[in-house]
Write a structure and sequence with these properties.
256 residues; 9 strands; single chain; alpha+beta
């Protein structure tokens, strides 16, 4: 957004200016003993130094502003619909699922309901946008919930995906009246998965600066906490699904 770009430019300009001030300040201290009678010449050089420094900082600011404005990647669809309808034995099927998750900041999104072999539903949401698009960042699933749903707790964890790869994720327990759902989500960018909000913002910033070719995605899956069911049991259901989903989705994101 414009405000974010402006603030980033200001911060980086201050950092560059401070670095140059310290550097030239040290140089001036070292040469102070040699100035002596030529103080008028030194003042003239110092004046030129200030002018050059100011011009340099201004040029960097203009360049950065233009870089942020022009940092727009190809926003063509990557084909999330190519995700198989059978993921690790979980099949897409009609379900009476209500209150689907939604993110208006996506350029492409996929929403499905998969069923376990016993008929328990798992809601899947994948949101994607070009890494350097001018749109706002993807929403955080922990801060943006379906209408009237509230977060009970949020926890970070690491789980093992199919193939033995570690996957950093975030767990949530959400509630609406007497209904409860266990939620699992993570972000993906440049072939890496992470769950932290700070990590996501840094990855988003990096993508804008270097104009990364690949976009960013958020993956959110949810399942109901059944009557008499323990939270760990619902988590195991999501773990098994997420393990296979991670590999299938990785192929689509890499191809995109």
């Amino acid at each position: 957004t414009g405000i974010v770009n402006f603030l980033l430019s200001v911060v980086l300009l201050v950092v560059v200016g401070e670095a140059l001030r310290i550097r030239f300040g040290v140089s001036q201290c070292r040469s102070a003993a040699n100035q002596g009678a030529s103080s008028s010449v030194g003042e003239s050089k110092s004046g030129w130094t200030g002018t050059i420094t100011a011009a340099f900082i201004l040029g960097v600011g203009i360049w950065m502003s233009g870089a942020f404005r022009s940092a727009v990647t190809d926003s063509r669809p990557i084909g999330l619909a190519r995700l198989p309808s059978n993921v690790g034995g979980y099949f897409v099927a009609r379900s009476e699922w209500v209150d689907f998750y939604h993110d208006p900041n996506t350029e492409e999104a996929l929403t499905r309901v998969y069923l376990t072999t016993t008929g328990i539903p798992i809601e899947l949401f994948i949101g994607y946008h070009g890494s350097a698009s001018g749109r706002a960042r993807l929403q955080s699933p922990s801060r943006s919930l379906p209408d009237k749903w509230k977060s009970v707790w949020v926890k970070s964890a690491t789980m093992e995906a199919a193939g033995g790869e570690g996957l950093d994720v975030t767990w949530m327990l959400t509630r609406r009246d007497d209904a409860m759902r266990v939620v699992l989500y993570w972000y993906e960018s440049e072939g890496q998965a992470f769950s932290g909000e700070i990590q996501y913002r840094l990855a988003w910033l990096k993508a804008r600066i270097v104009k990364a070719k690949r976009g960013m995605a958020v993956v959110r899956i949810a399942t109901p906490l059944l009557s008499g069911e323990k939270i760990k049991e619902a988590q195991q259901r999501l773990k098994r699904f997420a393990s296979h989903l991670y590999l299938q989705l990785g192929k689509i994101l890499e191809a995109g």
